[in-house]
Amino acid sequence: MNAAEQANSIEFASKIAAVVRLFKTAFPDLRADLKPWANDAETRELVDPDSIDVGFHFPGVSRLFSCRSLLVQIRFYEDPETQVRRVIGLEVAGFDHRGKRWTLSTIHDWTFTGDGVPDYTVGDRLKQCCREVFEVFNGP
């Protein structure tokens, strides 16, 4: 679900802003998009209500990332008894004019899969951003 739609409290909006700041600090060229999904009925059927989706765009194609845009999906699980919402994983995908080029899933084995995966150094920084997202939402 678009991050802009999930920012329904000051606390949650602050955490979303912290995530944007994490990525922009690590990769200053990125421009954040809090509404990466179109607002039509067809797209809404595909949207996961237990996720926050943030898009990031480079000013052009990034050679190091092998893409033009990133889609970051932060997936949550809410404990029915305590009603505490925790991050269970992130899915990050890199896109260019041909479509999805690669993915990174923290739910599985934290490896990049696909065509033209990111350079090792930026890939490690991206993984560090993912670790910090867990801290933002699941930390004390």
What is the spatial order of strands in the main beta sheet? 1-2-3-4-5-6
Using the CA coordinates, give the radius of gyration: 15 Å
SSE series: HHEHEEEEEH
- Counting structural domains, the number is 1
Number of helices: 4
Poorly predicted regions are none
Largest sheet: 6 strands, antiparallel
Question: Kindly, what is the distance between the CA atoms of the first and last residues, rounded to a whole number of angstroms?
Answer: 25 Å
Mean pLDDT: 86
Number of strands: 6
Strand content: 35-45%
Helix content: 25-40%
Assign the structural class, choosing from mainly alpha, mainly beta, alpha/beta, alpha+beta, or little secondary structure.
alpha+beta
Q: How would you explain this protein's 3D organization?
A:
The structure is a single chain. This protein has about 140 residues and is an alpha+beta fold. It has one domain (about 5-140). Helix content is about 35%, strand content about 35%. The chain has helices spanning about 5, 10-25, 40-45, 120-140; strands at about 30-35, 50-60, 65-80, 85-95, 100-105, 110-115. It has a 6-stranded antiparallel sheet with strand order 1-2-3-4-5-6, covered by helices on one side. Helix 2 (about 10-25) runs antiparallel to helix 4 (about 120-140). The mean pLDDT is about 85.
